Amino acid sequence: MAELPDVDTLLDAAVRALGGTRREGQAVMAEAVSTAIDTGEHLVVQAGTGTGKSLAYLVPAIRHAMAEDTTVVVTTATLALQRQLIERDLPRLSAALAPLLNREPVFAILKGRRNYLCRHRLQGADAADPEDTELFDPRQLSSVGRQVKRLHEWAEETVTGDRDELAPGVSDLAWRQVSVSANECVGAAACPFGQECFSEQARADAGGADVVVTNHAMLAISTMQGYHLLPEHRVLVIDEAHELVDRVTSVATGELGERPVNTAAKRAGRLVEAGLTERLSESGEGLALLFGESEAGRYDHLPDALAGGVAAVRDAAHACLSAIRSGSSEQDPDYATQRKQALAALDEVHDSAVRILESFEPPLRERTDVVWLAKGPKQSPTLHVAPLAVGGLLREKLFGDRTTVLTSATLALGGTFAPLAAQWGLGRESTGRSRVGAEADAADATGSGPAESGAVTGGTGGAETAAETGGEAAPDDADNPDKAAGEPRWRGLDVGSPFDHARSGILYVARHLPPPGRDGLDPRYLDEIAGLVEAAGGRTLGLFSSMRAAAQAAEELRERVDVRILCQGDDSTGRLVEEFAEEEDSCLFGTLSLWQGVDVPGRSLQLVIVDRIPFPRPDDPLASARQRAVGARGGNGFMAVAATHAALLLAQGTGRLLRSAADRGVVAVLDPRLATARYGGFLRSSLPPYWGTTDPEVARAALRRLAAAPVAG
Known about the structure:
alpha/beta; 7-stranded parallel sheet; 46% helix
């Protein structure tokens, strides 16, 4: 094969073909990704909004794939980015690069098996008796029946069987009647529809692609649970890498409750004697009764009664598993499907019960899992078991035999990559100083930032941060329970942003307000919100720490200001964002699920309000257990867990303000602790480098000027 053009040449060609302009940060990132691929050293890249990071990693990824006749895997956390890559970025990029690469690069998307229609399950789907229906509400059953009928019709015309292509969509309950998980699938060889399987076709397409796009959960299942769902690859790009730990933790979390026990018993009932399944069903009912008498929250020691209930489920599930595995192994496809589905459900129940019981065996300090009971008016009581940390798992399974590029707009917390690197199991950076550290020192040395009385800066002052937090801006070795010899070699790079944050945005911290309380929004907070919204003439994204606070603010503001207030829950999130973007003087209030994915450039968004620093709840079972574990090893659990969590969410939330180079506006954080608390410097240095103030009139005056400015063009 002829020598391919270098990355810089390909990037220039791609930018020209796509009608863009060359960006320094994009070029620096592309070259760094190419170098990482060549050297095998992992790369952590922070690329601010507007950098064009997708192009910066796709160009070297495609070049490597075509030069080596191999596949590069790209994973994302959100469906929105996945669609952007598959429907917009990759088609345009492939067409642009084809003349220089002698052929058009091939790309594919790969999702978990549950996302694809199963033809075999479809033939046996009984809409009159969906096994997961709670309480068998006749109206719900009728709705499911209509949706399943529609799925039958769609199956005759779809080419991919991909659920995301079905519009309008159907409920999860209906979809479960016509799909199977990886554990439930009998395999293409045994399935009568194996040659027509949508999931198998997607995997086949992926196997021949230069670039395969998938999600973090699929990556975790394939790489860490040993299912080998992804094609062989030596290079992995993890976009939205700030989400990686949470997504991997979710995949690695086991659950035990009455519903999965009943589902397992029902599936096993077709294959084993009634006495065994009755025993399993009764153990599930007993567990539900015990849950009703137990306190919700984290368990450091499992009460004897609850431990007995879990053990009863474990033993009953084991008896059913043994009976099925020692029974008939006939190859009839329908029987094989029933057997596989029963084994999958029983294994899930049995393994979760075993893991819960075994998690309490080591001394508290040596445990690797945390167990908690979740219960509430809208959820079935469920015992959860999750890993205290996933860094060791990531280091062993993800970073061991491939080159990994981790990128996002927000990875440097407190001016350093160390907090997230510790959570990923990367440990300390193995080579020189990252650009983050160099810029932090430069900012500190020059004293850059507003010379205003009472100003607060949002820059990258790493040295200042270390001083303000007692030298604990970055977790030390003791903060990382996964730290071990032989850490993967990696380097960090911050390519900055093409936006001039200090000239385009103001970070206003309401230092004069009282610290936030627990009993809803203080009236003074509501007054502050009303004043800011009035000054901005609407154009406000309100990000609240709870749905209760968002609803309270929406209700109050609707009585006080003459602009439309949209609130999360009034309609689908997508539709609310569309209305907010279209109606310039409206406001959109919501909670944590809105902090990412809201991309509204232009005059419709000129004010972002954050009601409080988004620390995890003190009673959050996983966060509190992780914080305690860090402290037990001599580290600062608050900084390593709570402050890092808050810094990441704050960076994501405040990053909603500037989405294009022409955007201008104000980020208003009402929580005075951002300006007054010892950890405030760490949090502020995690945010985009907006110009800072604590003067409310400065913020309101800026908003009034923006609202009165003539529309450009």
